[in-house]
Structure formats: structure tokens, C-alpha cells
Amino acid sequence: MANICGCCGKKLPFLDVGFDLIEIDGEDYYVCSACNNNFADYKRGNLSLEELVCDFTKPKLRQHFVNHAPDAKVVEEIKQQERQEEQRIQRKLTAQENDPLYDDIHQIAGDLRFIKNLIIFGLVCGVLLGIIGVLGML
């Protein structure tokens, strides 16, 4: 038996790994990967409910979408995080343009952290081997 998408009414492809199974009131509804991506966009606030649902959408599934409407506060937080990420990237690009050694300094700092961790690991292993050696002599 072929599985039908409860949102768009299309038959799910045999190897569609992006489909989702939504259980509502004991009934299972399949949602294809395209509709699943649209639902994720809807939850992020990038898509309206009218763009998400169509004539083929089952009534219970439509109500599920309405119940999971994006919260304005969540949408604003996501957009704020995106703005902060853009600002961070812009500051990094500006720092790279102003200081050509910016990447070299960060590379050296990473190398020093690695060497510090390597020394600590060596000391811990040395202490453990010393304890094992002393216990072996007893």
C-alpha cells in the first residue's frame, strides 16, 4: 500500500527518507519531505499558513499546523540570533581586512592550546604509569 502525504496529497516516493509521521488522535498522517521542509519554514515564521496548506490537506493535519503556529517571540529570537551572527561575521571580516595577521594569530593560539593539552595528557599518563610501577613492585 502506498503512503500518501496528508498535506499535499502526493504519493510518497519509495526511498523518501525525509518524510515525517505525525500521530493525531490515534491516526497516523504521513508528511512528505517537501511539506516537512515547508512546515519547518512555517514554524520559523518564513512561511504563512495559507502557503503551507492546500485543498488536499486533511482537516486534522490543518488543525495541527494551526496549533503549532510560530510564536512571535520565538520568531523574533531567531531573527535576533541571525542578526548577531551576521554582525559577528562582519566584525571578523573587518578585523581580517584591518589586520592581515588576524588568522595567523588565531592559528598560533590554537596550536598553543593543543600543545598545553598534550603536555597535561603526558603528565597524567606519566603519573599513572608511575603509580602502576610502584604498585607492581609491591
Helical percentage: 55-70%
Total helical segments: 5
Within the largest sheet, what's the order of strands?
1-2
How would you classify the quaternary structure?
A: single chain
Order of helices and strands: EEHHHHH
Q: What does the average pLDDT come to?
A: 80
Strand content is 5-15%
The Cα radius of gyration reads 27 Å
Shape: elongated
How is the biggest beta sheet arranged?
Answer: 2 strands, antiparallel
Distance from N terminus to C terminus (CA atoms, Å) equals 72 Å
List how many beta strands DSSP finds: 2
Features:
138 residues, mainly alpha, two-stranded antiparallel sheet, 2 strands, 64% helix
How would you describe this structure to a colleague?
The protein has helices at 33-44, 49-52, 59-67, 72-98, 102-137; strands spanning 20-24, 27-31. The protein is mainly alpha-helical. It has a two-stranded antiparallel ribbon with strand order 1-2. The model has no long low-confidence stretch (mean pLDDT 80).
